[in-house]
Amino acid sequence: MGFFLLMTLCFGFLAGTSWQDSLAWDEATAVVDGTVVEIFEPGLMVKGSGSVLVRYVAGGAEYEIEIGRDLGEHFLRLGDVLPIEYAAARPGRARAVWAVETARSDLGLWAVTAGLFAVLATASGAGYLVGQLQRGRQ
C-alpha cells in the first residue's frame, strides 16, 4: 500500500506541475519568434538535457529567457527559432509556447497514472483492512 501511495504522490506532483505550466496567464499576451543564442550543457553529475538562452524582441527591445533544452517533441539546438509567449504589459515575463503545449499534452497522462495508483492504493488498503478483520475474528 505504501508503494502505491508513494507513486500516487509522485505522479500527482507531475500532474500538478504540468497543470501549473499549462495554465493561461491572467493578463494579455502576445507571441513572437525567439532564437536560441546559447546552449548550457548539464554538468557531469546532473541529469537532463541542459538549457538554452532564447532571445526575442518585444516592443522594440531585446529580451532573453533561459528555458529547458528538451521541450517534449522539440530538442533545441543553436539557431533554432521557436514561438515565445510574453506578457504584453511586462515583456520580460515569457515562456516557450512549445513548453506549454507539452505540459498540456502530458497533463492527461500524469493525472490518469496518479489516479490509477490511487485506486490501487485504496484497493490494497481495503484488502489489508479485510485481512485484519478476518484475522481478528479467528
Describe the secondary structure blueprint for this structure:
Elements: H1 2-22, E1 29-40, E2 51-58, E3 61-68, E4 70-71, E5 74-75, E6 81-87, E7 94-96, H2 97-137
Antiparallel strand pairs: 1-2, 1-6, 2-3, 4-5, 6-7
Helix pairs in contact: 1-2
Would you mind describing this structure in some detail?
Helices cover 45% and strands 30% of the residues. The chain has two helices and seven strands, in the order αβββββββα. It has helices at 2-22, 97-137; strands at residues 29-40, 51-58, 61-68, 70-71, 74-75, 81-87, 94-96. The two termini are 24 Å apart. The model has no long low-confidence stretch (mean pLDDT 90).
Which range best describes the helical content: under 10%, 10-25%, 25-40%, 40-55%, 55-70% or over 70%? Answer: 40-55%
Uncertain spans: none
By secondary-structure content and strand pairing, the structural class works out as alpha+beta
- Total DSSP E strands: 7
- N to C succession of SSEs: HEEEEEEEH
Q: How would you sum up the global shape?
A: elongated
Number of DSSP helical runs: 2
Beta-strand residue fraction: 25-35%
Give the overall pLDDT as a whole number.
Answer: 90
Tell me the Rg in angstroms: 22 Å
In short:
This protein has 138 residues and is an alpha+beta fold. The chain contains 2 helices and 7 strands; from the N terminus they run αβββββββα.
Defining key terms:
45% helix, 2 helices, two-stranded antiparallel ribbon, 138 residues, elongated, alpha+beta, five-stranded antiparallel β-sheet
